[in-house]
Amino acid sequence: MCRSFNISKLLIVGITLLAIWLSGCFSAQDAPPKKATSEPQLCRGYFQSEEAAKEQLAEFARSYSNLRQWKTRAKRIRAGILRGAELLTPAKKCPLNPIIRSKRKYNGYTVENVALESLPGFFVTGNLYRPLNAKGPFAGILCPHGHFRDPNGGGRFRDDMQKRCATLARMGAVVFSYDMVGWGESNQTTHKHPKVLALQLNNSIRAADFLTSLKDVDQNRIGVTGASGGGTQTFLLTAVDNRIAVSVPVVMVSAHFFGGCRCESGMPIHKSDTHETNNADIAALTAPRPQLIISDGKDWTKNTPKVEFPYIRNVYRLYGAENLVENLHLPNEGHDYGLSKRAGAYRFLAKHLELSLDKVTKANGSIDESDITIEKPETMNVFTPEHPRPAHAVKGDEVIDALLELR
After folding, report:
1. Whole-angstrom distance, CA of residue 63 vs CA of residue 31
2. Which residues pair with 117 in a beta bridge?
3. How many domains is the chain partitioned into structurally?
4. Is 100 part of a structural domain of the chain?
5. Would the pTM of this model clear 0.85, i.e. be above it?
């Protein structure tokens, strides 16, 4: 009996030691991701506190410690975004059938009015800015606008939008500024549809299709920059489209704020049973491509230098590309894409897209936008009484329903 007892005791000790050894063979990073929630969940606006956001980023960071593990996470987050937007199975692409008309020549650049079909019968409307009297191939830059209204009608018609696009064109880029859904001429449906995020993200992908289809655009030098809702489009598009080589999201990379419009957070792109993320984590998906994150002290990006940027920079460090990500923080400024923010973006885009600052820089080194001609919306519209929208244009909820049926 005593011998039997000793053998049993030895077996128990052995099994315990084996279990301890096996547990040491697998790190926390190798464990499967815990389920974020049993059902897809919307994360909108100030979804969580600043302190909760910091803790969430710390938890994300504990789930990987090397590049292989980050890439596994990145793949899962990217799929979660597309699944939440109901775009995991890509929409069947129709011909763009671009309409380009009404060319105007200004000091160092030209402007044309553009429409393209992102879906059969749905038109993405905007303006194409090109360098004047220059020889390509040129870099291409997408400029989605934010939810800023006046002056000059808001959206792509705003003075600061026109200055940004024209200045980038004078620097040597072909620039496409396009309407967000429900803004400007994009009035075939509204931004209030519960699934407008799917249409908006698809429109941005098709805008990239258009820009890369132009013969004088270098497909390896494609950038995107926008502020506020345009900043959301900037990091979302960059996250899901590898053609974007350089990204400059402005006043929008926050871990505790998720965007207030349905086109930013109206579908479960942040949280499901297979993934959990926030906008700082999504911006990290840009790595190792060059990225400038512009933040300020008077909105939800006030913590970026101490919270969001260190997290993103650590992801770049895994790639050995820490020098390719920067943060321009303006603590005394607010929620806009003002001159100081534009100047930072110009310099970063010039550096990484091989643009020239010479034509837009004063003798003292400051940016000069004084020669930009500000146009009226009626001049910038592609569809007019003389040039009506094509008869096969669709309207209402059927636009988004058609997108989600193209599977």
Report:
1. 8
2. 123
3. 1
4. no
5. yes
